[in-house]
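Example record used in the benchmark description.
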Amino acid sequence: MGVAGLAGCPSDSGDGGDGGSTATPTPSGDGDTDTNGGGGDDTDTTTDQEAVTDTISYAVPNSPDVFNWNPWTPQDNTAGDLWMSELHGLRNVHTTKTSYSGTTVPTPHKPDHDQIEIMTWIEDYEVSPPFDWRDHHDDRSSYWNSDPYDAVAREKHNHVNFFKNGNKFTEDATFNQKAESQWTIHYWKDKGEVPEQDKKPTSRPVLEADAGPVDGNPPIHPDFTEPYLERYLDAGTEDEVNAITDELTSDRIGLRRIALNGGTDEALAGSGPYVLKSMDDVGSEKMVLHLDKDHPNAEHTNVEKLALYWAGGDRRNTLMTEGQLDLSSGAITPGGTMTREALPDHVQEFTRWLRATGGDMWKLNWHNKHLQNLWVRRALVEAIDWNAVSANGWGQEGSQVLEHDTFMLDAQSKRHFSEDFLNSLHTYSRSANKKRATEYMKRAGYSKQGGQWIDRDGNAASIDLIATSNIQAHIKAGQTIKANLSNWGFGVNLSSQTDSTWQSNLKPKDGLNYDSTIFWHGDPYIFQYYHDRGAWWDEALVAGSPTAEDPFEAKATDEVDTQNKPIVQQVPNEPGAFEAPDEAGKAPDLDNASEVNLVETVNAIRKPGNSEEELQQLYRTCAKYYNFYVPHFPFHQYLTGSYGDVRDFDWPDPGARAFDYERSFGIEDVLVLGGIAQASTNTDFEPPQ
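Model output (structure tokens):
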């Protein structure tokens, strides 16, 4: 949920909200296979000339008074913790593949290293279908106080999380992980070894996605987690468990409890190359971390300090325009949050790329009688200028409309399907094609009276469109959709809702109180798109079960999913097939098509035993279903990047492989914590064009 939320909330993160260009740099190398490779040289990072600065500055949306490393509190105030923790892996921004410790990248911008080897917490992993996988950690990892940052610490943290989530007395719940050595943790899917628990054999691609990536809360030091774990293990009643959980969630891990010289003598968190050495380095404006010369990534860099300014949103933008910050995420575009005119000359964009996991969709609810009609959905998509929707919402050059209609963003479409298959699919218009839209409405059985579309029963065609007030881009996009459709004769009732109201209206348990909405869209893996999931925060091809107590997963025996989409559909045999009966309802009879149970299909993707050919056939079935029925309409993905101080720092060239990696939703911490950032020895720089 956190990943999906960040993908759709660019206002604070800068991702997708600051815009970008229409061209994406081509990486100079794949970068995903260079693990455990040649390594950097051992040359001292000092040069004959002194660096003009010893500090690189970034902003985090937090403050020293509320910062809390404890992830189990009701209010998540951990923002900034990733700057104080080990890189766990390096996710390629173009492909979403992850590389691990030992990855080497060329660094010609550095005077002392032609290439560097980046250490990450995960060193390697292994997968043993259908249940098991193992993560191997780099044995050089440690907390700031030199205690091992190992698999043991990770298991204790995760075990506390398991109990905090209420699993102590749940009969079918098992804690499926074990630190089988100090640096290797073993995970497994449910094996049906306890009462009420079903076996969950899983395919290799899904297990590989579970292995390695640790994109979440960094494990707290065992000095904090172990006492809670022991109490949970000893608890004999639900009341005891609840009492422990109450204490856990109210236990604050402030900066004093993690600083090496904080006065508490605890040092409960913190790992990675930049260390909070003393509370003397914490002020109301910023916090200064110092480079640990013993950290493997420290040998690459001449940047001695990392200053984290306490600022988010408008305050962060002000600091950047004042030249106080050296690095930020996004792109400098005419319609973005940051424009060229607002920034000092020495703050410039130095890379941008297509956000492989970040975009947006027009989400449709088939409980609305108009949206149940295949030709109406097709007509609405054709009647809207999606280029304008994208530009008005996210700014000129801020995003790029999708090239292919597979339900996925383009990075995954191109990764999993051949060019021939993609080119054979039907392509919906990106600019408004009112002529085609009118034809489709007539085939749906609608006619126009006084400029208004009317169905066969005489009802005026209209739908509701809701957007969250928390994301201004969604509101602007919704206004464009309304204008396009209203001018064409299809009514749209647009409403902006508070974030909590909007979320509630999207939840299956609360009744799905919407017709359509603008919604974030984007996942790292194909099986996350082609999946059955009734969660409000992340849209899958099948939307969960309306008959189950928990609507998260649909059932093959359901007639429809939570959005009233039929579970069994006829899917064309040929990609790109488009013909359907007039007035086609939810489940039309088609020629040259096969009957497909969508739940069985998406579940088969996640089960072991498929050959590559069988897996590809399942993927193609999902793509053909989406392409024909257009149940929703993902329309664009973000163009993003990074910008910062080019006067005091030297950066790689825009297309360099050193810019190919990120953790979470930005490359900034990889650039700094990986040792890629290089303080300059002069202040010459090219002024902006």
